Amino acid sequence: MTRRDVRAFLFDIEQACRSVANFTADKTLSDYLAEPMLRSAVERQFEIIGEALNQALSVDPTLRSQVTGASSIIAFRNRLIHGYATVAHETVWGIVQTRLPLRRQEVAALLSVARGPVG
User: Fold this and answer.
1) Residue 69 half-sphere exposure, CB side, CA atoms within 13 Å?
2) Are 76 and 46 in contact (CB under 8 A)?
């Protein structure tokens, strides 16, 4: 089994961030709370973000200093998966609104520096 290039993991993170932004565009917290499918879709993308970041760090540990709150992102993924019953929907929504834009910017910047095909 070959190891994926770190750019592939960054690309996955970028795509998941984009999906969350698209899913939640023009939505409110009330919409989020009322739509189980929206919550599931957003949480799934956060799981992908956390897992892809964890895998990227295993390939390139120096990324930890380039992604704000890397450990917290991975811990959030773990909480979504293993502590799903205790996840507050308002917390997830808060992360969508306040932290996701910075993650998108950071990952986009990392990808712009990386050269070559992703895969």
Assistant:
1) 14
2) yes
Crossing angle of helices 36-59/70-82, nearest 10°?
A: 130
| 63 secondary structure, DSSP code | G
In a domain? residue 119: no
Q: State the residue range of the domain holding 67.
A: 6-113
Q: How many domains does the chain have?
A: 1
In this prediction the pTM is: 0.91
Residue 118 falls inside a structural domain: no
Block means of pLDDT (10 residues each) for the chain, length 119 residues?
83 97 98 98 98 97 95 97 95 97 94 67
- C-alpha distances in Å from residue 27, one per residue of 24, 58, 63: 5, 35, 32
